[in-house]
Amino acid sequence: MRNLELYSIVSHPHFKIVCAPVSQSLAVNDKIYILFEATQHSQCLISYNCATEDLNSTEFIDGVYTNMEYLPFEDMVFLTTKNELVFLDGDVNLVKRIILDGEEDIIHAKWNGHQDVLAIFFECNKVSLYLVNVIEELAVSISSTNLDDEPIEHIDVGWGGTHKYKRAEEVPSTYVCDNQEPVIDWKGNGDLFAINYFDGEERIIKIYNKSCELLYSSKGIQSGLEPLLAFKPVGNVIACVTSSDGQDQRLMIIEKNCMLLSMIPLEEGAKVQKLLWSPCGTCITVQLKRHDQVWIDIYLIHNCHYSLKQRLPLDQAKTFVDYKIKPMLSGIFNLELHYNYGYYEYTFLRKFIRSNIMKFDYGLNVNVEGSTLKCYYFASGLSSSNDEAHYIHEHTCPINGVVFSDDSYKLIYIDSESIVYIYDYTDRYNWDLLYTVQLPKSTEHIPLNAYRLYMPNDTKLCVVCFSEEMEDALHTYNLTTVEPTCVISTTKKNIIGVSTIMDKKLEFYSKDINKMPIHQFFNVQINGSYHLLYMTVDGGLFIDHERVKEKISSLFVHSNRLTVTVINNELDMVSTDNVYGVYLTAEVIQTLKEGGSFEDISYKRPVEQGSVVLNTIEKSATTILLLPRGNIESIELRNIALFIVRDKLLDHKYIDALHYIKRQSLRIDLLVDLSPSHFFTNKVSIFRVLDLCASLNKFFVEIKNESSLNEKEMKLLGVESQLENKVVKVAESFEDVYLRLQEPEKHLMTYALAAYFTDRNIVETMTKVSKICNTLTSIRPADIVNAIEVISNHVDKKELYEASLFTFDLHLAELVASKSQMDPCVYRPFIQRVTAMDEFEMRFTICYEIGRFKEALFYYFQMYREESITGEEMILFATESELLSELYNMVDVSDDIFEEVGMLYYEILMNDQNYLEAGILANRLQRYVEAVTAMLQGYHWQEALTVIDAGVLTPEQSLVLYRTVANTMTAHRDYVDAANVLVNHCTDYDAAMQCYISAKEFELALRLSIRMNRPNFHPMIEDSMVIECQNLCSRTQELSEKFTKYYERLKVVRQKMKAEAEAEPLHDTSNIEFSDVMSVTTAASTISTRSSNRSNRSMTRRLKKEQKKYTTLKENSRYEDIALLYNLSILVDDVKEIQKAVNEMYCTIQLRNLDIPDVVTACELIDELIKHIDKYSPDIWREEFAAYEPKEEDKGVYSNLVHLDHKYRMKPELKVSSKERATIIFLKRR
């Protein structure tokens, strides 16, 4: 599908070199080497440097020199005589001569591509391979072969079999060429070489490896060979020429096994002069001659198909010397034509010729194949094949250039004779030939001098012609008269494009706008202004001459889409107007020019590596790709398809939208996702369309809660957010509109599916199905069966049968059972039995059968209310089914089983340790003793007192229960509340006094003795107070000793840590991010978080172990310093508690004027301890500990502080409480 388009012509003139007949010529870089006969007995080799115009020559008079070759690695020219190898430098000065002694005359010689092996064909039909050392004048034969040898045997099977090569028709020939000169050519990598020679009967091609082993021979396979041979640089393909009659020659392409691949007919009566492959092997050139005419045909190769793309007629009068193909970038074909007076450099681009029309709903590409122009139409979704192509009539000479003039719907092409043909392609099936224009050739007779064609209107043709001058010229022709009207100087050289913009003003685009050759360019209107978009052959995308993207392999602008393929298996599409969400604007273009990315404005799709854009379809998501293997495929751009579907939906074209979704293989729930509000607003119409298109079932089978749009697509399409619980909401909508459908009974299956999707509850689904079946009398059993089958795909069959039974629709249940392949001996007797029962009994039996005991209890209770069963049977069933709580909630006070059921439920609650609920239940049943007992067992003493205080019990019962409450509270060490109960309800002052003393509430005890006038309590209270004062003194002394011990040990530990830090500095801890959360308690919680997958018990053990490590006072342990800080902080908390107790004791004794001297001692001891702690606190809890900012020299000493909670690093607040005691006494006396 690719064609060759002439991109530029560059002239390199020089003075005339030679007029004599040329024997051999070479064009190498900037130099030309020509070997010609200077006189009858001498030859001359000249070297001309085209850049410096230096001319050098050497005359040979000592023999015939042939086989001229240039050796680029050595920068030498190589020739041979009968027995010599001759080497000359670039200026044709003799370097070395190497004589081959003892050998026959040299007929032909050829170097391999690496220039390390020379193959020589000798007169005795022997071929030898030589290693040549030019400096030491040494040539050593490494292997040789006799041409009479037979090839080795090959076993070709499978893909190597001969049947693989039946690609072209073989034409048997008896013709034998009279030229007996041999030809040798090497494969590009030097592994193989081929020889075309005359064996006495016919010409034969033989294939050898680099060890001179004969692999294949064409004898008996090919015939009529000419003395031409060209091994493809890449691969195992060989080009040669054959003829059946010696007049009409054909280009023959064979494999290395000499089997035919392709046969290409050549111009009638023409003789092939030269075969030359391009360096990459993608095209082959054939130089032909017929009479005085010489031309070069250029063939492109794709998928083993050879297409003639260009014909270059040469001027023989100018003494054509040679031509060569220069290695260039991919997509470029560079040909140099060398004459004896100069050379011309032709640059061709391999590109697609396609129409950029927007009027039609198809794409149009043309392909040049010699004198035939094939036109391909691409409709939406599928491309046309070769046999569907629209053919233009055959011409007498090849077509060289094709141009679409989309503004006027014209196709223009020019052939190798400079004849222009203009067709109107408005009618797809009826093309009209409008004009034929013969362009004059230039005075220099340069091939293809007219290289740009353009039609600004229906009657004008513009032709850009090459000129030897600095500027090209634009020739304008009036097509009505077919005469030139004017010639315009373009002021530009090598024009690559001509266009009209604005008011039909001509605009020229020169290749000089970019150093790299431009492959394709488009003049695109964006937001009312025109921008030039083009692609260079190195894969650069330019907008207004600014490079905006790299590594693209193709570019196409059609309609409102700019489509590029990127080398990394990706296709990008950018909109040029606001049709598909994001698009190119002036601001976006400026951002791209400044280095912005295409990511935010392009749609991407993966494609096969090496794919290129062939065409796109107007108003369609279809893009036509040419794949590397040559096949044409169409792909759909999802983002464009989404916009098309959305537009159809918003235009209420639901049938079109649905058909388009099916054709593009999109998810059918796009009907919802593209516009949820539109769907639910028009749900009746949409469901009716789904019904009409037989897509209702497909819709509910494929619908998913996950949106069919990704976040980027939702943003582009303006969808605010994903619809939550989509399946449920859509299913509910269908249930609403189901009865409004035409013939809803036909869609019972879909209704059942929607009902199931609503809440995934099979019981509710079957209930709805049963209800619909009873409502619509026109529903057939087959419809019900279909509904059952579709539901059975989502639930277990047993579950489905039980759900159908629970609907109590026995007919439906029997259908489900039959379709679930259940045993009729099982379900039919059961259904027959329950059919004969009363309503409640039937429902009870079904619920009991399927294990729904709660529902069975309800219907059983209804039978009890109807007196079909006794209360004992009712209670027995509830007990066996463990449903006493449900039965209790059903019964009423008026029922004769109310109290019995309540007490049974009471026992269950007591066994389950739900004491409060059991107490409330017993109270409702007027079982007050049991109520109080239950509440006290759960220690709900306030509720128990409420029951007793209600006054429904006798005084004796109340007193017993009050004492029970007080005893329970005493057992829970709730002494003060117990004393209040004993005083207020039991008048047991002795027991109340013991409670106050046990609680060490001496002030309350004294008040009780005074209030009740019981002075006999005073000695007992004072004795208890003396004992408590002594205990406080003892505890204070213990804490003082412990504080001293901890502090002394802390100093020793810190000194030891400091010494160790000075001897071996610890790691820097300044970068430790300390958090108050990371403490003795919470540091271990981090570990517990990491072990969240373990059981709670193991986590608790690990937490305790981790915490214990930081708090245990183990001598010489790693964390002993922070363990001492932790225990010192706990000690201070104990001191605060003792201080509070001492203060209260002191105030009570002073207010009551009691004589207890031990309290003074306790006050003195606690005040002294507080002063002692306060004195050493700054050293223990240093100020920098609070924020963990110790001095630099102390960081090693205090590195463990990160494991200690913040509160244990803070200095505790302690004050001597003499003033506080005085204040308390003063306030209490007031």
Automatic annotation (TrEMBL):
Q: Where does the ELP1 first N-terminal beta-propeller domain lie?
A: 43-319
Concerning InterPro entries, the annotation shows: A-sol_ELP1, Beta-prop_ELP1_1st, Elp1, HB_ELP1, TPR_ELP1
Q: Where is the composition biased (Low complexity)?
A: 1085-1098
Q: Where is this region: Disordered?
A: 1085-1107
Q: Where is the ELP1 alpha-solenoid domain?
A: 638-832
Using the record's annotation, list all stretches that form the ELP1 three-helical bundle domain.
Answer: 1028-1155
From which residue to which does any coiled coil extend? Answer: none
Q: What residue stretches are annotated with the ELP1 TPR domain?
A: 877-1005
Q: By what name is this protein known? A: Elongator complex protein 1
Could you tell me the gene encoding this protein? LOC108567963
